[in-house]
Design a protein that fits this description.
By secondary structure, the protein is an alpha/beta fold. It is 44% helix and 12% strand. The chain has two domains: 232 residues, Rossmann fold; 100 residues, Rossmann fold (3-Layer(aba) Sandwich). Helix 5 runs parallel beside helix 6 and helix 11 packs across helix 16.
Length: 452
Amino acid sequence: MSKIPFGPTYEEMLHPSIVDPSIRAKALKAKSDELDPINLFNITWKDESNKVNKIVLPKELTGVECNIVVLLGKYFPSGSHKVGPAYSTLIEGCVDQTIVPGQHTILGPSTGNFGIGVSYICNLMKYDAIVIMPDNMSKERYERIQRYGAKLDLTPGTESDVILTLERTFELKEDPKNRSLAQFELLPNYRFHRHVTGTSCIEAVQGIGNSRVAAFVSAPGSAGTLGAGDQIKKAFPEAKIVALEPYECSTLTNGGRGQHRIEGIGDKMCTLIHNVLNTDYVTLIKDEDSVRGLKVIHDGTDVLVENGIPRDVAEGMKDLFGVSTICNIQGAIKMAKYLRLGPDDNVVTIATDGFDRYDSVIQDMERRYLETEDFVLRRWFKDVFHKVGIEDIADYRSETQKEKLFAQKEKDWLKFGYSKAYLDSMKTMDFWDNEYEKIHHYDELIKKYREE
């Protein structure tokens, strides 16, 4: 076969300390040159000292007693953890010999961060790429995708119209030279998050509270990140796994399909790789609160300090989060209150990216409001963080509720050629555990081919 690019295994993405020391040193040095292909070995949640990049949110911000731990995705190459699933899906195709360098063009259906990840990874691994995404996302997303070299194929709508990107991808796949890194349906996304993100979440709470995870909270876009919950439940069976979705697009809760402003989540479907067996709750978050909260964190340092947050902590948070992270934080606060968690308990969530791709979102918000001065931000601080209630939480632990999600999945995916028998096979943990175990097979193949 053609020589595949040199890149890490799943285990090396989880534990970069086991990477050959000379490669690890080169990768760390190359962080300032993001288009150096050695940055593939920086796809990890870990920092230079092999500790998980995270922040424990100040309780003056959250207003709850429990510890809310946020893993930080902005430190991944390209600025988002979505680069991990993009790489995993591409490298599995390479070693399976279904994606061949010089022959195939890569398709990346996305609403932003996965598309950025696809464009970035294809730049490093020398593939042509086309990112298919809605035409009303933040301009920073389009600019970064094009900067990394991918072409854009835009479909009508916003985040809630991602189904159109899947239909367009389905059309483009008819050309035999195109290969899709379909994040919503391909299981390397699940494998990456279950192994790398899930285990990193477990490591992140060590030494905090009781060193256990009481709840893992994440808004599903592709639902790949929710795969981390399967690993967390293996370690902590009592942990609750919570899917968040926009109040304005409550598809999992009640079939709702409205428009919303939380880029990266709420895609009017139950994605194929969403393991609903381990989804305990579905919780709704209002989109405007997520945008307001981002404005408070980024531009309201003085307001945060007034509320007891040390200035260095407030300033340090300015660029750590995007809109979907504020959604995740609100969901974490909501579940901490609902589950009545105390100071020994930990809720874990994810910051998919940082502020660098949301300046235009804040500008748009400011055009919609007469004023966004500090006196407004003081009110938003209380409304978005301290006044979070326990309404709009649906308990999905019963078989009846899970059947609703399976029915939604059938509605969404039978039309894309998946059989009912295949969808039914997802109703047991054996399916998910068997898919997860494939990481060992792929790690061996990656090591074999990169040594040739």
